[in-house]
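pinned: reference chain
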Amino acid sequence: MNRLSNRTKAAIIYEKGTPDVFKWEEVEVPNPTNKEVRLKNTAIGVNYIDTYHRRGMPHPWPVPELPIVLGIEGVSVVEELGADVNEFSIGDRVAYALPPHGAYSEERVYPVDKLIKVPDSLSHVSDQDLAALMLKGLTAQFLLKRTYSVKSRDVILVHAAAGGMGLILCQWAKYLGATVIGTVSSEQKAEQAKKAGAEHVVIHSEGDFVKKVLEVTNGEGCPVVYESIGKDTFRRSMECLQPMGMLAAYGHASGAPDPVDVVELGTKGSLFLTRPAIMHYMAKREDLISSANDLFNVIEKGVLKSNVNHTYPLSEVGKAHRAIENKETTGATVLIP
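pinned: its structure tokens
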């Protein structure tokens, strides 16, 4: 079925590098084939992981060869069905938060096995708000429920607690009954983290988060640390763990941490270290759908707020990346096609 134009506009890169590498150009949209649909994006999420992909930083997610249209999160309308697509219809409101890349475009083709239909119960949630919640929300779901199962009265440490990911972790963990200790880089971000549910907040330039953890836990340490900063905080995050605690290192904004000697994990208390990635936790469709339903449930209950504090036209995605890397943003950033 070729009733649609095969041309659209997208932010494409021909080389890895600074935010200036994005080129706003007309690109070809292939016809959807078996088990694919053509989507019209209505809102596109920007995530710190996108900056890794643009710069060529090491990461568990494979990035295709250049040139490429980046982006893995969006809310869309189904425009065209490929062969053997029975679970979606033209006009459906859908969302996605997994590769393949290609979200930084007005229209795209996407596989149905990774596509999620947005329930009618979320009709009151805007496309922008939903786009800000999909990847971060699904990531928070597996971090809090599967990487480590957060329980009531757990004391946990969340780094970058005022970032888009950190705010969602704080909100959801508080709902689960945990006490959240958050780290931030400024007083303004400290206030946002507190509003999201962080009971204790440490500003990096003013306090010692290890000392705060030991103070709050009476010297016992945390059962889990959600580590997203990397090199600058990784070693000291290990010092915050109780025996048999879990260091969930899901990001490395300050650079990849130095290698850890496996023997050290034993001497520090039989610690667990993992580098969790959504593509592994959501590899099976049943896990993706189950996690999405859990996410949609807490959104519907009002537990999670999207915190869309920054929006940019899709054509200005370079400005969005620069602001994120310069730590000029709080909460979520969304692109508008």
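why pinned: The first strand starts at residue 7 and ends at 13. The chain has a mean pLDDT of 95.
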